[in-house]
Design goal:
The chain is α/β, with parallel strands linked by helices. It has helices at residues 74-107, 124-131, 155-158, 180-188, 276-288, 301-306, 311-314, 340-363, 380-383, 386-392, 409-419, 421-433, 443-451, and strands spanning 2-8, 34-40, 44-51, 57-64, 115-122, 151-154, 167-170, 197-202, 206-213, 216-223, 243-249, 256-262, 273-274, 317-320, 323-330, 335-339, 373-377, 403-407, 435-436. The strands form 4 sheets. It has a 6-stranded mixed sheet, with helices on both faces. A 6-stranded mixed sheet has the order 18-17-8-9-10-19, sandwiched between helices. A 4-stranded mixed sheet has the order 1-12-11-13. A hairpin with a 3-residue loop joins strand 2 (34-40) and strand 3. It is globular and about 65 Å long.
């Protein structure tokens, strides 16, 4: 039996979910001037439109990055740029952002010429492609960026139409694999306290990891893949209406409870696929039920029968082109499954994240017990069930009071930079003093990565 429970759809990639105070606002006199804060993710582009005089968020909008047609990860984008598509990739992101802004302006009766400032954050590759900078130095070791620090330009110089005349600020990054989005998180969360040991993990297609060891800053980045955002998954989708966001699976009788996102205006729920947070929850449930082994193997139907699983469970285990699979939902209109390949995607991602964290801690002669605060950034973290993430080893197993889910901190940092020029100065300051660790140069990374492959808590 499958039971469907609804959960209400929220904006899955908000730039701003807070109200800014008067102290945050620089241009209180600019009543009819607006600004745009943009978080260019490898998979998702999020844009916020703000009134500069009071910091009011007029509109939020997000959608899949149109550059994904040229690859799901940054290395594929860099490869395509090297094949002569650099200008095309630049034009795609400029056109997409302009289209999003135009929609928000039309809906709110704003003239595009009233937008006077834009702030951009993203990983180093996304920022380079937006700025039209050569990404060839990001292709391999020794990695080299085409520009350093805060990059300033104008809409007219970067490819926007004549309707736009805003000044653009691309926030500073740290290195080839730790970009402006990581610096934005660092500053928005004030991860530079000299009294604390703080760890932040920004989970997306790339996972940036920041460690503050009582005022000494360290960072690294690792490829997590697009599975957390529903991409590259057999039945994957964004955290939108119809997405499975959570699950419970009973080993004893085979009953399944699915938590499915429902749109605010919809009368009924149509199950369409699985979002990233749902996939993590499902994998944790399969592991609890013993259907998924610690090494990541999804058992087949024959093995399930030999181990005494009920018929309801056994009949859900099938074979497909991506290996063994488990059927979560099947009716005349849709069939939603999770496959062995889907499991491997999450397995590889969570192992890379843990290995990256362990490298930074090891270099500082620290353990997780020494860490005072663990902050999980990225929209993905807002929807995940923490116990599931801890069970499979995606998040560290720490006391609940140490763990905080901070959502799209990078996007909020972009909004802060838009409204407060001092925030930009802070970002420039700390971007220069972060100690970057290139994981590709660490011989022990591969061993830690392999040791972290098992689905178990840290």
């Amino acid at each position: 039996m499958v039971i469907i429970r609804e959960c209400i759809l929220n904006n899955d990639k908000e730039i701003s979910d807070k109200t800014y105070t008067e102290n945050d606002i620089t241009d209180k006199d600019k009543v009819r001037e607006f600004g745009v804060a943009t978080d260019i993710g490898t998979t998702t582009v999020a844009v916020g439109l703000f009134r500069l005089c009071d910091g009011c968020c007029v509109a939020n909008y997000s959608e899949t990055n149109h550059q994904t047609r040229y690859g799901a990860d940054v290395m594929m984008r860099i490869m395509n740029a090297g094949l002569g598509r650099q200008n095309e990739l630049h034009d795609i992101i400029i056109a997409q952002i302009e289209d999003i802004i135009s929609k928000m302006c039309a809906q709110n009766h704003i003239d595009a010429r009233e937008i006077t400032r834009m702030v951009i954050v993203g990983n180093t590759t996304m920022c380079h492609l937006f700025a039209g900078k050569d990404v060839s130095g990001l292709a391999g070791s020794p990695f080299a960026v085409a520009y350093e620090g805060l990059y300033r330009t104008d809409c007219s110089d970067i490819g926007f139409s004549d309707s736009y005349n805003a000044r653009i600020y691309v926030m500073p990054g740290v290195a080839a694999h730790v970009g402006a989005d990581a610096v934005s998180v660092l500053c928005e969360q004030e991860l530079y306290s000299k009294e604390k040991i703080q760890l932040a993990i920004d989970i997306g297609t790339n996972a940036e990891i920041i460690l503050n060891n009582k005022g000494k800053l360290f960072a690294c980045s690792t490829a997590a893949g697009p599975a957390f955002e529903g991409k590259g998954v057999k039945c994957g989708m964004r955290a939108a209406s119809g997405a499975i966001n959570g699950a419970k699976i009973s080993r004893s009788n085979g009953n399944i409870i699915l938590e499915v996102i429902k749109g605010n205006t919809e009368k009924s729920i149509e199950v369409k696929g699985i979002c990233g947070s749902g996939l993590v929850d499902i994998i944790a449930e399969l592991a609890r039920a013993g259907i998924l082994k610690k090494d990541g193997y999804l058992i087949d139907r024959e093995t399930a029968r030999e181990n005494g699983y009920c018929d309801e469970i056994c009949c859900r285990l099938e074979e497909c082109e991506d290996g063994n699979s488990f059927v979560l939902y099947d009716n005349k209109s849709s069939k939603v499954i999770v496959t062995q390949k889907d499991v491997r995607s999450i397995q590889l991602a969570k192992a890379a994240i843990r290995a990256g964290v362990e490298i930074l801690l090891q270099e500082n002669k620290l353990s997780m017990k020494d860490v005072d605060e663990v902050k999980i950034a990225g929209v993905f973290g807002k929807f995940i069930h923490p116990k599931s993430a801890v069970l499979i080893g995606l998040y560290p197993d720490v006391e609940s009071e140490k763990l905080e889910f901070i959502g799209n901190s990078a996007g909020r940092g972009a909004a802060r930079a838009l409204l407060d020029k001092n925030f930009i100065k802070t970002a420039e300051k700390y971007a220069k003093i972060v100690n970057h660790t290139e994981l590709a140069d660490k011989k022990e990374f591969q061993n830690k990565f392999m040791n972290a492959m098992e689905f178990k808590s840290w």
